[in-house]
Amino acid sequence: IGARTEFFGGAIRINPTVFYAQWRDVQVQSVNVNASTLEVYVDNAASAHSQGLELEMQAAVSRQLVFFANGALLRMRYDSVGDASGITKDSRFMRAPKLTYTVGGRYQNSVANWFHYVFSANWNWQDDQASNATDDTSLSLPAYGLLSLRAEVKSINDVLECALFVTNALDETYYVGGTDYTGSAGTRRLGLGRPREAGISLPYNF
Fold first, then answer.
1. How many Cβ atoms sit within 10 Å of the Cβ of residue 43?
2. Structure pTM?
3. What is the dihedral of CA 13, 101, 61, 162, to 10 degrees?
4. Whole-number Å distance between alpha carbons of 146 and 67
5. Using CA atoms, how far apart are residues 189 and 180, in angstroms rounded to an integer?
6. What torsion do the CA atoms of 153, 154, 156, 157 make, to the nearest 10 degrees?
């Protein structure tokens, strides 16, 4: 259930959405590692449900300057676990942060009949989350925020474009995955997120 609203001639937009979903026959993957093999099991976890709220907002301060924000609250729970091993009704769903949001802004203008230019920045934040589905192999991945910057110049007819961009501008150290093998192999594995990266794009539209 949602709404799409505009105020002050479209200068402000607020779009809320609430949702509820029920799942059946949810599949859960578990991993077992020993000295010579890696075994992967897939079980059905019976049933679960998810519910949450999403909110999109945008405010045009002027024709050139726009601010925006998007956020989501998520709650996911098992209703029953069936014959699945390694989880309980209180287990966390993998890759399901309770809170995520993005805030940012964009400034665009043109120089006579020569070219357009756009500057934008956004901050994306994710709450802590479970790395795996099963309790004995899951790690809690810490919350993190990433800053992205972009500057682009376009020809008036949008044929030529040049853009400079920086992702993870603050060079934040964060994790995008991981598995706890302590019980079977005596170690843990964590997947690092991408470091600060800068680049240039030169597309030609025809």
1. 19
2. 0.86
3. -110
4. 17
5. 6
6. 180
Q: Whole-angstrom distance between the N-terminal and C-terminal Cα of the chain?
A: 40
- Cα 102 to Cα 127: distance, rounded to the nearest angstrom: 12
Residue in the structure block whose two tokens are 């809320």: 16
What 3-state DSSP class applies to 193?
Answer: coil
Q: Measured between alpha carbons, how far is 42 from 132 in angstroms, rounded to an integer?
A: 13
CB 53 within 8 A of CB 37: no
- Residue 84, judged by CB atoms within 10 A of its CB (0-12, 13-18, 19+), counts as buried
Q: Report the SS3 class of residue 183.
A: helix
For every one of its 206 residues, what pLDDT tens digit does the chain have, with 9 covering 90 and above? 999 999 999 899 999 999 999 999 888 887 776 666 777 888 887 899 999 999 999 999 999 999 999 999 999 999 998 888 788 899 999 899 999 999 999 999 988 778 899 999 999 999 999 998 888 889 999 999 999 999 999 988 878 999 999 999 999 999 999 988 887 777 888 999 999 999 999 988 88
